[in-house]
Design brief:
- Helix 1 packs antiparallel against helix 5.
- This protein starts with a strand and ends in a 10-residue tail after the last helix.
- Helices cover 61% and strands 4% of the residues.
- The longest helix has 35 residues, at 18-52.
- The chain has a two-stranded antiparallel ribbon.
- The protein has 158 residues and is mainly α.
- It has one domain (35-148).
Length: 158
């Protein structure tokens, strides 16, 4: 039995183990490469769709179920319009639609790059992207923004 990347495989003992281990490592590398390519193709597809389809026109985007049920905005309301504006080079307009998205987008990009790196490079496979305390802080910010954006003090239109 050989253990590679947390997976256990049987390796035949007929001669050298090196070719069988290399074959397994190669298939794991190909699978990880496909996973990373799939993630980035999905991101590129979402960005392309967001660039081409204007959510302000109301076609091609779902309505927010939270807003439909309660009449209040969720933390994600305005994200489609904000992303569309960012992709068209209008960061101020994007900030007006959803400041949280504009502020957290660099962190989301960093997380995506970290996940990609951990999939490709086995040495960083078990490294946490963010510490749990950081996740709690982000959750607190999201909930605070959610509450604040539904008060009369919220300065932007969504």
């Amino acid at each position: 039995m050989k253990s590679l990347s947390g997976h256990t495989y049987k390796v035949r003992r007929a001669g050298s183990d090196a070719p069988a281990v290399q074959e397994i490592e190669s298939s794991i590398s190909v699978r990880r490469g496909l996973q990373v390519a799939t993630i980035w193709l999905f991101v590129a597809g979402v960005a392309t769709y967001s660039f081409l389809m204007d959510p302000a026109k109301g076609t091609g985007y779902p309505s927010c179920p939270f807003r439909m049920l309660t009449g209040f905005d969720c933390p994600g309301c305005g994200s489609s319009r904000a992303l569309h504006q960012l992709l068209h080079g209008h960061p101020i307009k994007a900030f007006e639609f959803n400041p949280l998205l504009v502020i957290l987008l660099p962190l989301l990009a960093l997380a995506l790059l970290s996940v990609s790196r951990s999939l490709i490079d086995d040495k960083h496979r078990n490294v946490a992207i963010f510490r749990p305390a950081f996740a709690w802080v982000v959750l607190g910010i999201v909930v605070s923004f959610w509450i604040f954006r539904n008060t009369r003090f919220y300065p932007f239109v969504s």
